[in-house]
Design a protein that fits this description.
The chain folds into nine domains: about 1-140, Sandwich (Immunoglobulin-like), CATH 2.60.40.10; about 150-250, Immunoglobulin-like, CATH 2.60.40; about 255-345, Sandwich (Immunoglobulin-like); about 350-440, Sandwich (Immunoglobulin-like), CATH 2.60.40; about 450-530, Immunoglobulins (Immunoglobulin-like); about 540-625, Immunoglobulins (Immunoglobulin-like); about 630-720, Immunoglobulin-like, CATH 2.60.40.10; about 725-805, Immunoglobulin-like; and more. It has two helices and 75 strands. It is about 0% helix and about 45% strand. Pfam families: TIG (PF01833).
């Protein structure tokens, strides 16, 4: 209580401003919140404050308002009252109370609604806790748009396809903003070299707010290059992207050599270290007089004269093996050197390998290679397997013969079956290794092929026969369901195959895995087969094999489950579902069934023991053929249009799976729904919707099933028009034709009586959207218009009819809103202060309010909800009249209780 009294005294003494104080900040009194920040920035107490883009501030895309308060005065968890307003509308503060928080001395609010934080609007805010004084007023401006793309210009590298400049020659690019609040530019070049981007995203500041920026850049390659540029404004928004494309002139020479190319796979083994090869230089600039060339930084170098076409062929002998780069530069007659062209090539001095190169091998078999040197003084060869792994390979050494050659035999086994290739190097007496020779290969695991007979039913035996492509297998090993206790090892027969027999004891998904092994102990990859083992009943039928007819028949179930006492079966598309029948003493049961329709059917059967153990399910499918159909008559002879009608068809061979179609006199047709078939299948009843059907004779067709043609009866019956309902008295409208009033429509009277009615209201003859009920609430849009209603009557067997009412008088305005709570004047009524008017409470609610202030009965010019009181008003009696406007209604007025303005 003492805290609240203190707050009121301080507020009165300082004359705190309201939320509508406009652009002039209200300074916080002692005890009000402090430490204010807007989006992490210190409170700006003058407009427009910082420019903020909520989308770039945080994941919540919100402007965050923070502050602190004195917990020793206001407690740990008071109520926070934030006021936020558009500075152009200070009398309309926003309510964010549901998001505001105050806890342990900290105040927090996230402004997350973009509909209340509009682009380009300057907002002010302040905060208090409980009845504390208001804080300072802080300002910020919302900026959500980065605007249009900046312009890009360059005299050195103009946009377009015409090439300019050259590789390594810097050019200037100028960025010019389309907006006046740009503070920097982000740019990146793309030229296709390496990953494509030469710079990544770089940022350069504008010369001033909204000013341009100029950068310098050197091309790395010739041809098409692009530049992407964004302007960034003071709120951090990015503009649309500017795409600037240009072309760099190629002044580096073209270089090619058929002798020395870049890839190991294309190496010509006639060329080696110290063996000259032809390199072709072609200039791309006019008046070239010569070329300079060098290999890497420490290799051979030289100069070659260019011919009249700017070309030169140069014989160059590489001084080292492996990958290296030839750099070539064109020199024009005026002595100007142009950028270097880099030509990467590979010098192969690896051994020559012949034999079973670049081929596959079956596990357990061998490849043979002959190795010959291409470097001097070779004493051995080093080779290793490659699996694609990054681990250190196990390298092996082979000594050479007197002629420097050696033979390598490689056998595929279970230690190296993941090999994808072999690498071989020659080693000289001083330990120097040549480049490696790559020999690609693949190992075929020769997984056994499997065939199976039997084993489909519990208690039977599965016979497995296995064979493999591995040469000379000595034995096979097989395992059932990966159970090590079932492992069988069988010697290979003379034809290289093996046969296994596994008793099957469980109804389950079953598998057998098999490997073959040779005398050296090398085994193949694993082969196998899998299948489902069933103990479900065997289903047979002489009547319903793959097909049957619509007549009584039987199925025979034979149990394959030990101890089965009953069979359980279902037939799709019928009412037979989980039907139980006992298992006979011979383990069988005969089940009768009479189809009622043709088509495809599925029977699902299983068995069950006395203790409830159920077997697997047997699936049995079959087709029931439709019998021939005849159509001899249809009744009744005449049928009225306008609704759902029932017809009876007489003939033979009918079933519920038939299709019935009606072919109308105008060429149209309707499908009928079968509702019943007699037991002797000579009578069929069906319903058909004849709403809107053409009158005249009808041909009826009955199709036996979905595949065979229909049997037709011409002129089977005649469709005749249904009589129309007739209005006796037209509908009438009761109620007052004024905005807000409810009108009611009568149905009128009809001959014969209608059984259902629909309504359609109109204003000035134009139908009103959604006005389809028996009552209608008059809207403001109807003001001055005459209202009418159309009533449509329906009755089964009759054509619907419509009648319209007499129109009302022109719609008048509704009654004025009435103040149930009078407006009043709030704030201190003293000269130099401001007071505000409440709207009061109105019924019905108003759409808008206006204000008439009077001092001693004299109307003042102010029309807003607030009024600044001057010294001249002291002693006068002040009232405010609130004028309430509602669309389509007369305006309402209510006047507050007067207050006296103090000095």
């Amino acid at each position: 209580m003492h805290r609240r009294v203190y707050s009121l005294i301080v507020a009165s003494a300082l004359g705190l401003a309201s939320a509508g104080a406009g652009a002039v900040p209200a300074f916080a009194a002692e005890g009000g919140p402090a430490g204010l920040t807007t989006a992490g920035q210190a409170c700006a107490t003058t407009s427009p404050g910082p420019y903020l883009s909520p989308e770039r501030l945080n994941d919540a895309r919100a402007v965050v308002l923070d502050g602190t308060y004195d917990t020793s005065v206001w407690g740990a968890e008071p109520t926070a009252d934030f006021q936020v307003w558009d500075t152009a509308h200070p009398d309309q503060p926003q309510d964010w109370s549901e998001r505001a928080g105050a806890l342990d001395g900290k105040l927090h609010l996230q402004l997350e609604d973009p509909e209340r934080q509009l682009d380009g609007v300057t907002y002010a805010w302040k905060v208090r806790v409980d009845a504390s004084p208001w804080s300072d007023t802080c300002y910020f401006t919302v900026d959500r748009s980065g605007g249009s793309a900046p312009a890009v210009t360059s005299d050195d590298y103009p946009s377009g396809d015409d090439p300019h400049g050259e590789v390594g020659t810097a050019g200037s690019f100028t960025f010019t903003a389309a907006a006046d609040d740009t503070v920097s530019y982000q740019y990146s070049f793309w030229d296709g070299v390496d990953s494509g981007s030469t710079t990544g995203n770089q940022t350069v500041p504008a010369s001033g707010l909204g000013g341009p920026a100029t950068i310098s850049w050197k091309p790395r390659t010739s041809g098409q290059t692009s530049l992407s540029v964004y302007a960034i404004d003071r709120a951090g928004n990015y503009s649309d992207r500017q795409y600037y494309a240009f072309s760099v002139r190629e002044t580096r020479p073209s270089v090619f050599s058929a002798a020395y190319q870049n890839y190991e796979s294309s190496a010509d083994l006639d060329y080696n270290v110290g063996v000259p090869g032809r390199f072709e230089f072609s200039s791309n600039v006019a008046d070239t007089s010569s070329f300079t060339w060098r290999i890497d930084e420490d290799g051979p170098s030289g100069t070659a004269d260019a011919d009249a076409d700017g070309r030169a062929d140069v014989m160059i002998a590489p001084a080292k093996p492996g990958h290296q780069t030839l750099h070539v530069r064109a020199i024009t007659r005026d002595g100007v050197p142009h950028p270097e062209q880099a030509y990467e090539f590979y010098v192969d001095n690896g051994p020559r390998v012949t034999g079973d190169v670049n081929r596959g091998v079956i596990i357990g078999s061998s490849l043979r290679f002959h190795l010959a040197p291409r470097t001097s003084d070779v004493t051995s060869y080093v080779w290793w397997n490659s699996t694609g792994s990054s681990s250190e390979p196990d390298k092996k050494t082979i000594p050479v013969g007197a002629d420097g050659t050696a033979d390598l035999t490689w056998t595929a086994d279970n230690t190296n079956d993941d090999t994808i290739g072999i690498r071989v190097q020659a080693r000289s007496a001083d330990g120097t290794l040549s480049q490696s020779r790559w020999l690609s290969m693949s190992v075929f695991g020769a997984a056994p092929w499997i065939t199976r007979t039997g084993g489909d039913v519990v208690g039977s035996t599965a016979t497995i026969k296995a064979s493999t492509e591995m040469a000379n297998p000595t034995e096979y090993e097989a395992v059932l369901n990966r159970d090590a206790t079932t492992k069988q090892v069988v010697p290979a027969a003379a034809d290289g195959t093996a046969t296994f027999r596994f008793p099957v004891t469980k109804a389950q998904y079953t598998s057998v895995s098999v490997i073959a092994r040779n005398a050296a102990g090398v085994h193949t990859h694993e082969g196998g087969t899998s299948w489902s083992v069933s103990n479900g009943p065997v289903v047979t039928s002489a009547d319903f094999g793959s097909s049957g007819h619509i007549r009584p028949g039987t199925f025979t179930f034979k149990s394959q489950q030990a101890g089965a006492t009953k069979f359980i079966y279902s037939i799709s598309g019928t009412d037979l579902y989980n039907v139980e029948v006992p298992v006979g003493s011979d383990g069988t049961a005969v089940v009768p069934w009479t189809p009622t329709t043709s088509g495809y059917f599925s029977l699902y059967a299983s068995s069950k023991t006395a203790d409830g153990v159920r077997s697997t399910e047997t699936y049995y499918s079959f087709y029931i053929e439709a019998d021939p159909v005849t159509v001899t008559a249809v009744s009744p002879a005449t049928v009225m249009t306008g609704g759902v009608r029932t017809i009876t068809i007489t003939g033979s061979g009918f079933n519920t799976g038939n299709y019935v179609n009606l072919y109308l006199s105008d060429g149209g047709y309707e499908s009928a729904t079968i509702t019943g078939v007699s037991a002797d299948r000579t009578t069929l009843t069906a319903t058909v919707d004849l709403t809107g059907a053409a009158t005249g004779p009808v041909t009826v067709g009955v199709q036996p099933d979905g595949f065979n043609g229909s049997v037709r009866l011409d002129n089977a019956f005649t469709i005749v028009a249904a009589p129309a309902l007739k209005p006796v008295t037209k509908p009438a409208i009761t109620g007052q034709a004024a905005v807000g009033s409810q009108l009611k429509a009568s149905t009128g009277t009809w001959n014969p009586k209608g059984t259902a009615f629909t309504y359609r209201w109109a204003a000035g003859g134009t139908p009103i959207d959604g006005a389809t009920g028996a009552t209608y609430r008059v809207q403001a849009a109807d003001l001055g218009k005459r209202l009418s209603v159309e009533v449509t009557a329906t009755r089964s067997g009759y054509t619907a009819a419509t009648a319209r009412s007499t129109a009302t008088a022109a719609v008048a305005k509704g009654p004025a809103p009435v103040a149930t709570v009078l407006p009043k004047i709030t704030g201190k009524p003293a000269a130099g202060s401001a007071v505000q008017a409440t709207t009061g409470t109105w019924k019905p609610a108003a759409d808008a309010y206006s204000y008439e202030w009077r001092a001693n009965g004299k109307l003042l010019s102010t029309t807003s909800a607030s009024l600044d009181l001057t010294a001249a008003m002291a002693g006068q009696r002040l009232t405010v009249t609130v004028v309430a406007a509602r669309a389509g209604h007369t305006t309402g007025r209510a006047t507050s209780t007067p207050v006296t303005i103090q000095k």
